[in-house]
Amino acid sequence: MESSANILIVSELQQNTSQLKTIAESFSNEVTSVNYSDAIREMNRETRDIVIVSQSETEASVELVQSIRMVNPACLLLFVANASDFTLLRNIIRSGADEFFVFPDETSLFTSRFPTIVKNYEIKKNSMEEAAVTYGRNRGQILSFYSGKGGSGRTLIASSVAQTLKLESTAEVILIDLNTQYGGIENVFSIESNRSLADLMPVVEELNESHIRNVAETQQDSKLEILISPCDAEVAELIGEEFIAKLIRTCRRSFDYVLIDLPSHMNAQVVTALEESDKIFYILSPDTSAMKTLKQFETLSSRLGIHLANRMEIVLNEIAKENEVQQTDLKNVLRFPIAASIRRDIKGLQPYINKGMPVRTIQKERKLILFAKDIRKFSRDLLKQ
Ligand SMILES: Nc1ncnc2c1ncn2[C@@H]1O[C@H](COP(=O)(O)OP(=O)(O)OP(=O)(O)O)[C@@H](O)[C@H]1O
Ligand SMILES: [Mg+2]
Known about the structure:
The chain is an alpha/beta fold. The chain folds into 2 domains: 3-126, Rossmann fold, CATH 3.40.50.2300; 141-384, P-loop containing nucleotide triphosphate hydrolases (Rossmann fold, 3-Layer(aba) Sandwich), CATH 3.40.50.300. Helix content is 44%, strand content 18%. It has helices at residues 14-25, 36-45, 58-71, 86-94, 107-126, 154-168, 185-188, 209-215, 233-238, 241-254, 268-276, 288-304, 327-333, 346-355, 370-384; strands spanning 3-10, 28-34, 50-54, 76-81, 99-102, 141-146, 173-177, 217-218, 225-227, 257-261, 279-284, 312-319, 338-343. The protein has an 8-stranded mixed β-sheet with strand order 8-9-7-10-6-11-12-13, with helices on both faces. It is elongated. The model is unreliable at 129-138 (pLDDT under 50). Residues 154-155, 179, 184, 261 line the site of magnesium ion.
């Protein structure tokens, strides 16, 4: 017996119950198994360290995960699905599950990882008093940067925020360029590489963290991981939505922040990324034409069934005195909260853009350009959440 963790198994399927029991009992002698109807009572009866929920009907599963999380926000909550259903698994993670496995495909993965998961949980539990900000693994945030208008600053802002998050915290951060046709991020960091996220396509079925880290470029100053675009229209066409969803979900399991730079057109790749996102940052310049495009995007999203409420926030970019619309007026017309305001800083940015250098390279920069200061404020607000 390696652990004294109190483990609760919730399952309606006899086969899963006995499989999970065997795995759990080899680690702890405090294992209880119940069906869905008794789960909450059992959660209230004793403090559980680890709860493993095996999938039942979709709605019941999501609801149960939510309720368990509400009863015990600190427990480790694992979900075992019967099939790789993107929507279900996304909802399960949103409802508060820490990690999921698909049985029977991932039964052996689960068995082999379970000891580590339990150990990590116990280490985390024992070191609660440690003041350092530690990040809960396996539930990274997906932050997408979008705008219906080209040239609005998505690539520059996504890249600078990613770099700043990495420099100013201990979080694991990955930046993904989903401008699959033309790219863009490679220019911000002067990356010359033959590797791109398309190299992950052959391994999509078994995609894991080490595949991703092997293909990603590591930014030398911050150690930010970057998945470069294939920058090839023919390759871009072969990238399906299932691949995008799998890529994002795998990144979510291994990184604290997953930042996605999106193109301005709408296609299946973009829709998938938007659907998988926890937050969509819409980059808006304060002028009437950009506002009109935002309205069109709202209409299109509702037609495509992409829910923006509670997820989309506005990032105002190129704020200047001479703007056509002033920030105070904007607040009254926008239906979404403003996450950040970034000033227009043509002079400050120029040398960095010309040299292909990020606006930040060290943690304690002596002199920051205005743009980098605004990005720092935005990034610190994200870290606080
Ligand atoms: N706050 C700012 N101040 C000054 N210039 C800016 C600012 N934000 C963006 N720019 C300028 O706009 C240009 C385009 O930015 P960027 O490439 O990030 O936009 P994008 O939305 O990704 O465009 P694309 O449609 O090409 O993908 C930058 O090269 C930069 O010169
Ligand atoms: Mg771009």
